[in-house]
Amino acid sequence: MSEAFYAITLIWGLVFIYAVMATIDFGAGFWSMIYLNRNNTKATNIANRYLSPSWEVTNVFIVAIVVALFSFFPGATFTLGTVLLIPGSLIILLLALRSAFLVFSHSASENYKRILTLISGITGFLIPALLICVLPITHGGFIKTTNGVERLLLSELFTSPSVYAFMAFAISSTLFLSSLLLSDYSNVSADQEAYQTYRRDAILVGPISLAMAGLLVLTIRTEAPWLYERLMDYVPWLIGSMITFAIGYLALFIPRKTGVGIPRLAMISIVIQYLLASYAYGSAHLPYIVYPNVTIETGFTDPATFRALIVTYIVAFFILTPGFIYFWRLFLKDKRYLKQNES
Amino acid sequence: MDELVIARSLFGMTMGVHIIYATLGVGLPLMVLVAELMYQKTKDKDYALMANRWTKGFAVLLGVAIPTGTIAGVQLSLLWPGFMEVVGRVIALPFQIEIYAFFLEALFMSIYVYAADRLSPLMRIVSVTLVAFGASASAILITNVHAFEGTPAGFEIVDGKFVNVDPWEAFFNPSFIVTAGHVTVSALMTGAFVIASIAAYKMIRQRGNTREYKFHHKALMMGLVIGGIFSILTALNGHESAQQLYQYQPEKLAAAEGLFETQTHAPLAIGGYTDKEEREVKWAIEVPWALSFLADDSFDTEVLGLEEWPEDEWPPLFVHTLFNAMVGIGSLLMLLSIVGFTWYKILKRKEFPRWLMWAFIAAGPLAITAIEFGWIFACTGRQPWVIYHVMKTEEAVTTSGNIGLLFVLFLIVYIILMISTVLVLRYYFNRNPISEELDQ
């Protein structure tokens, strides 16, 4: 195994963690908007209670990915930075608005809370849709090189069925994962009404997200045959991912003493589902970072820099882990926080 | 307009906005900490209240500091892909370590704000200390990259490729310590003066010796004392920074001082503007021999003038004005805190005269202005280089185009963010007036 392989695995791990945390974060904003006008449900409160402390931490991951990418693969940064100018700028603009207004909504008056929730809800599905466009861009076909200058073909990008399949997948996954987490969260908070609401949403969106994943694979077949071919080497992983989906989905229907469904089991199975599928996708994508020009070997950083970075990662892991555990216990386990009446 | 200028304007605008929030994000936690300590020492509840209210304001400011910082981090790769390619190879460490500091800050900020009622007093202080530590560490680490741009180290260039990279030598590049020190102490100074400004403004609107007036008076004195201490440190460190320019970036010093001819016993030009055609600083007060002495502690020091370099490698000459404004404001603030302290503690006068109050009110905005001037001076003074004598800014800029449109979009978002910051702060503090909280 080469150093570049370890580095890309680390980045893949960061991307996966961010993808899960961010879909939940964005989805929570969306649900909080949907249930804003319902007076008889606490679903919005539950969403906000999860969202308030977690967005800042989630937000750090996106910077961590960008930094890891240009540190480990400066060659890829040059290409990606150049072609992602427009989509990347749109993403950070929306993120900035969303983050700032999330903070403001705690200090602002009731009248403004509506519009703030609206902003967080709308950006909640726009941002994932834009973020995922990075993937089809790396499949090749959307970058044109003239006189050594790389340029993103925006019109090709936005007329490509594959891009829309990816977007639909991103949005449905966002809603699916977040409704699952929130159903688990409201279950732990012993809020049956909110639990029922989010359970119903998960049952509704789950099959849609799976169908979108299937559609996405079909569009890859026509638009990026090289990737499709390699992906077929990982069929067992894809089957495994479908099995875990089935387990997770069925877990929502298992009867219990107090109600129906085991949301914790569902949540964990579905995360494993995404883990397996993204492992297959990521492995098939290698060695290319951007097809066909940039591979993990051509874009790799200086070996001395790589080793110094790895040392900081190890040190930071030991310093930060207690902080993350403390955070987890305060906001995701502490009954005093979960069961409070007002958000 | 050419794309390079628009790209520089866009990134400069991002930094110009971010630096206001980031500076206060470093400066305010210290004030909170000092207020907490004063409370422990004096048991005067006013100090506890100050810590509490400043933390509220700080949390709102952080709500913009974090997203603008995120923008800056991502925009670097989007606008300057050529530069970031070198950064990734040579000077990736500070960015990477900054991420850890950022995590620390975000985790404990959330804990401090959303779990405040469930934290023990000790954990409260630990959390706010970690937030302050994370904020300062972020500032220092990002400044590290800025220092590297001015005094690159830790690599060799063979056939246009960066080889023999030593990432830690790049990290501890010659100007790192002094530059990071300058950023830190000036941020701590600014946080203190902003507090002093607000306190002075509230006092001027109060009549008589009310309870509220006394509260603000204590805050004002705290701001002046801490601001005073750190403005002196900033000045001492600033002198050091200038001597480093003499040593490592002589053309930046020459542009800052408007010196065209290489000479010993060089004069110091204060004020005025640099005239490129006539190659002199007009309308300036000249202090003979002073520049030579300041540059290296001796009148015999030979200071290089701009004539040593081809004209297309000169930094823009208006940096002389920025440099003067920064130093001028710094000196003024130092003087102001000394006058305020003397008036109250040594002359034992109970009240400040009105003109002095207005000067205090101006202190915070002036300090922020000086920070902005300082950064613009530091970054435009390095031009045309993005990495001094290694890479020109025009070689680093994106080739994508369309930056003009992005400039407008970002401008709109920054305006929204800045206006909403003010509205949210005003709304919050109007809803929770100090008079009510004092009675509790």
TrEMBL record, chain A:
InterPro entries: Cyt-d_oxidase_su2. It is a multi-pass membrane protein. GO terms for cellular component: plasma membrane. It comes from the Bacteria. Pfam families: Cyt_bd_oxida_II. It is found in: Cell membrane. The chain crosses the membrane at residues 6-36, 57-78, 84-104, 116-143, 163-182, 202-222, 234-253, 265-284, 304-328. The keyword Iron-sulfur does not apply. Keywords: Cell membrane, Membrane, Transmembrane, Transmembrane helix. Its main location: membrane. Belongs to the cytochrome ubiquinol oxidase subunit 2 family. This is Cytochrome d ubiquinol oxidase subunit II. It comes from Guptibacillus hwajinpoensis. The lineage of its organism: Bacteria, Bacillati, Bacillota, Bacilli, Bacillales.
